[in-house]
Amino acid sequence: MTHRGGSPVQETGETWIGRDHLPQLVGQGDPAGGLVLPLSIGGLQQLDSAGHVPRSTQSLEEHLSQIALGRASSGAHQLFQDLASQDRILDRDLVNTDFKRVTKSSNQASTRTGTQTPHPINRTPDTPHRSTKDSGEETHSWMSETLASSVVFLVALPLCMGIAIASGAPATAGLITGIVGGLVVAPLAGCPLQVSGPAAGLAVLVWDLIQRHGLEALGPLVMTAGLFQLLSGLLGMGIWFLAVPPAVIHAMLAGIGVLIFGSQFHVMVDDVPKSSGLMNLLSIPEAIYKGILPVEGTSHHLAAFLGILTIGTILSWAQLAPARFKALPPPLVGVTLSSIIASIFGFDVKYVDVPSDFLGSLTVTEASAWSVLSEPGMLLTALAIALIASAETMLTAGAVDQLQAGSRTNQDRELRAQGIGNLICGLLGGLPMTGVIVRSKANIDAGAKTRLSAFLHGAWMLGFLCLWPEVLGYIPVASLAAILVYTGWKLVDTARMRDLAKVGRSLIFIYACTLVGIVGLDLLKGIGIGLTLSALRLLYVFSHLGVWITKHLDEGKAIMHLRGRATFLLLPRIETCLIKAPETLSLEIDITELDYIDHACIEYLEGWNRRRVLVVDWDALHGLQYKLLDERSQRPQSLEGIDASQILARNVGWAAAPRARNSGRYNRLSA
């Protein structure tokens, strides 16, 4: 009997799979070897139609080789879910077992009869098997998804309204986007647990758009952005929206956070934001003065009190709340408390304006509004909305994939769903939509397992607006602005800056320039600065070459050292160095630190060699010309002679028990 962590493993030769072991599935080798192999989900690719795992030693070794070479398929996870839903993987009474492969009753029965009780994964299709999906479990699933959706609804409601106000749009514009994100996007999404709605990342761009062109221009631009997204998804371009340098992304989020913080600080005291982000920041002392010492006849101090109360509640709720109430979202608690106090004492502050007939107030974008696209730069603005929304959605989807062990994101499907959602949002006068991490994380933390939760949160929002819209009229605008002030502060993530600093000072420089450009100029120009600097840095990294000469007079030679990558762009530097080499000394070329050299540089050195003999390993030099192209082909093509225990320890985290007949080594495993 083999042990791991004190838990016995029956040496039966059967491969067992338990749901608790995701994303690593645990298998057991053949009876003679007793080898315990942790298999990745990629091993499920070889399940046959009956749901059996191959039992031969070679099959298990092939699974292991896939893990070792990083070729495990993420798509096999969906296969596991499908088989589990058909009761072909495991019994419900085995779901929570760790390495105890059979129940006590099964062991006792096997001992009495001398036979082995077949496990569901190795059971043939003809073997009778009791269905485990009863009505009680289905009811529990519905209840858990409903509970998760209610939590997401409570988180999303104040955020949708707050982001709308920060964007200079009516609160209903944000609510429309939240509803569409649930009822339309959730069933179509490529990331089932991601929640879509209005995002703070686009608030600055939308605010500037509304200030310059009016609210009526928002609909056509959002629809055009949605069309860009839909076409990109149909063309399979979803994955390319991840190809943005991290320094630019974090600087963009930080810049947006600074701008939101500055503008909403004024709204939090019932004042009006200034004309630019820089002016909002410079006039924050003025807003503080109004909140402490208001002018007679104004209510700035009352709004400031409600805003501070909201932020204080958000910061302290997790520590001070009773255990039974900690599940309530802190922003919702802060808004509710501020609304109650403002209502009891009759504070004369600004309140959210929501129409009593929500459905009746919906309007469709008129055809005349599309003329805004003929103005210079408007198509570029729509494209910018699409790019920023898509990039933020893909980043959120990647974070969601890391937060749960369920199915992975289909980027193209998600992009198509976002495009359809933005087409509908633009048609109904809503804000642009993205996948949002705060609501998505709340969805996962609340126990959501399917897309049903995200769908239901949109249904609750629509039902609330139709049945009790007057309740929203009691919410102070200052309280919603306070949520955005807190959100803006959190977007400036200093931990990301420290991570970038560890990589190199050049990334911090790109981050700082992008941030200053966004705050000092505008969002698009700041992002453009960041992308330009990133491209220049990339060009420098791939074309940087160190060239210098050392003289060895006692040996009668000079050595020209090359370090980095030699391309045609660096030929002038190589020429200068060769000219400086004394002709009285023999000239050697040291290429031990050279990573790559292109054809132009080789031809140039060969030309010099015809005029003056260069001592260099020409075969090695020509080999460097193809080094970057051949790096993939240089990977091991087999695992011959590799210790299995080392592979497991490196790729899975624990070493396998050595096989008795094979001494822990694999022979000729195909890559």
Alpha-beta content class: alpha/beta
Number of strands: 10
Oligomer: single chain
Largest sheet: spatial strand order = 7-8-9-10
> How large is the radius of gyration?
32 Å
pLDDT averaged over residues: 75
Low-confidence region ranges: 1-134, 629-671
Instruction: Give the CA-based shape.
Output: elongated
How helical, in percent, are the residues?
40-55%
> How many structurally independent domains?
3
Count of helical segments?
27
Distance between the termini: 31 Å
Strand content is 5-15%
Summarize the main sheet.
4 strands, mixed
Task: Give a brief outline of the structure.
The chain is of the alpha/beta class and 671 residues long.
SSE blueprint and pairings:
Layout: E1 2-4, E2 7-9, E3 24-28, E4 36-40, H1 57-68, H2 76-85, H3 104-113, H4 135-166, H5 171-188, E5 195-198, H6 203-213, H7 218-234, H8 246-267, H9 277-282, H10 284-292, H11 300-320, H12 330-345, H13 358-361, H14 378-403, H15 411-428, E6 433-436, H16 437-445, H17 452-467, H18 469-472, H19 477-491, H20 494-503, H21 505-520, H22 523-543, E7 545-552, E8 557-566, H23 571-580, E9 586-597, H24 599-611, E10 614-615, H25 618-625, H26 627-630, H27 644-651
Parallel strand pairs: 8-9, 9-10
Antiparallel strand pairs: 1-2, 3-4, 5-6, 7-8
Helix pairs in contact: 4-5, 4-12, 4-16, 4-17, 4-19, 5-15, 5-17, 7-14, 7-15, 8-19, 8-21, 8-22, 11-12, 11-19, 14-15, 14-16, 20-21, 21-22
